[in-house]
Specification:
With 247 residues, the protein is α/β, with parallel strands linked by helices. 38% of the residues lie in helices and 17% in strands. The longest helix has 16 residues. The chain binds phosphoenolpyruvate (PEP).
Length: 247
Amino acid sequence: MKVQHKLLVANWKMNGSAALVATMSDTLAVNSLTGVDVVICPPLTLLHSFAAKRNFKLGAQNVSQHQAGAYTGEISAAQLLEAEVSYVIIGHSERRELYSETDELIAAKVNTAVQAGLTPILCIGETIQQRQQEKTEQVLAQQLDAVYASQPELLAKSVIAYEPIWAIGTGESASPEQAQATHAFIRAHLAQLDSIAATEIKLLYGGSVNGENCSALFAQPDINGALVGGASLKAAEFAQICSSAQE
Ligand code: PEP
């Protein structure tokens, strides 16, 4: 596989403040981020608080599938681009569960994001019940196929985050072996759609990544980075996670 930089994405969810923007920016600025790409996805109101000169990129946590119009409360891909956003998280399990986002809607959002020039970070993952019933691969294949089977050309422009729902915010990360096995399955499944894109796509692991477990996860051959929730609100710990992902 082509050697590529790891990608670290911070998902602040509905947390953070201008003070955290300043602390995170200062902390990351004094850390050399050579060999790792970092993206911060803050709440939208904080985007403008980031300085133009920074050693990381900006992401959003959601995007509308529509271009523009009467969609109160929504934000378009073009508006995100104007706010210097380059990545967007799509299909996070919280949006699937709490806001009833369907695979069909998620596919439309990925399409809209790519057409506009944003890089979608598509989140997929199984519940604990599905894992116990040995349905993990079936669930992930369905979530991937819903987006890419009819538009495999989007794969080359995407990032995928495997986030087992049972590991999100629980403090119980998947083991490096569990995560690697699942990532290997995802890559093999995607190879049926586009073998080159499957080799090059960044597969992130998400779910209780922290300063202690990150190195073992990053040592796995099919783990190309992480989507980090809780630990991305602590500047020193997030900087440490970024450093440990360096080549
Ligand atoms: C997330 O919600 O995307 C996430 C990975 O959260 P945490 O790191 O807190 O488990």
